[in-house]
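step=predict obj=MobA/VirD2-like nuclease domain-containing protein n=350
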Amino acid sequence: MNGGKAGDLPPISYVWQTPIRRPKRQPWDMPAAPGGKAVTPAMRSRLERIVARVPEVMVKVTGRTKGIAHLCSHLTYITRNGNLAAETETGVAMEGREGLRDLQARWSEDVALDTKRANRTLSVNMILSMPPGTDGVKVRDAVRAFAIDTFEGRYDYAFVLHQDDVHPHVHLTVRAAGYDGRRLNPRKADLHQWREQFAHELRSRGIAAEATPRRTRGQVRKADRGKVRAIKERGVQPRVERQAREEVVQTLSRDTAARPWEERIRQRQADIRTRYLAFAEEMGRSADPADRALSARIRGFVEEMPPLETRRHALREELARISAFRRSQREPLLRDGDRRYNMPEEDRSR
C-alpha cells in the first residue's frame, strides 16, 4: 500500500476503521456503491470533523458491582447519597433515599435468583464524558438517547449527571441480567460502537463530537490508566512504568531488533498518513474551492501528527536524554580534575 497511486488505495474510511470487528457498519464506512471508492457525504463530514480536531467523546467501563453491598455503595456514590436523581429506563427519576432504596431492592433480586454465585456481577458501570465547557444538560440528553437506543427492551439501567467536575459526565449503570437471560459483557467492538453512538447523539444536539480510534489521529501510545495518572500526580513513579523502564535498560545493550508488533504499528500509521495525503491531493485538483480548502486542512492535520513512537521508544529516548545530560554535568568536573592533577604539587593543595 505504501506509495501506491490514489486509485490503488482503499477509501478514505480506512483512516478511521478499527482493527476490531464491530456489530454493524456505520454510514460513514459505506462507499457510494458496492466496491466503489467514491466519498459519500457522511464520509466527507466525518473527515472534516477529524481534521478540525473536534472533541473526542469518552465512554469508559469503570467497573462492575458484585454483591448487594457493592451495588448499594455504587448507587449511593453516583446519586450522592440520594441527593441527585437517577433516571431509569422507564423515564422515572428516582429521587431521595427512598428512590435509591427502591432501585437497589429491584436490582438485588438477581442475588436471590442465583444462590450458587454469591459474587456474580449485578451491574456494569460506565462513564460518558465530554471536555470542559460542554453543556451538561445536552450531555445528559445525549446519554438518555444513547441508552434507549442501546439497552431499551433488553436491560434495566439508571444514569445520573454530574456537573461538579470540570468535565461534565454521566454515570450510567446497566443491570447485568438481561430480560432474555443474556448477561451484559461488553467487548472492545461494543465500546467503540457505543462511542460512535454517543458522539452521534451529541452532534444531533448541536455539540461537535467525534469517536475515532487513536490511530486515526496518529497516536500509537495508549493513554495512562486512571490509577496510573493518579499515582503520577502524587509524584510517584507507577510500578508499570518502572518495569517498562527496567526492560528498556536491559535491552539497550543487547537487543536492537525491532519488535514485529511495533513494525506493524509503524506500517499501519504509514498507510494511514499515505491515504490522508493521497485524498488531499485528489481534493487539491478539484475546481471547487471547498475541496481545495479541505485539502489544505488535511495536509496541515498530517503535518501536526505526533511522531511514530511506542511507549518503549519514548522511554528509550527519555533515558538517552537523561544519560546525555548526566554526562554533560560530569565532563566539566573531570576536566577541572585533569588540570588540577597536572598542576605543580605545591599548588594542588590550594
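step=describe
Residues 311-342 form the longest helix (32 residues).
step=end
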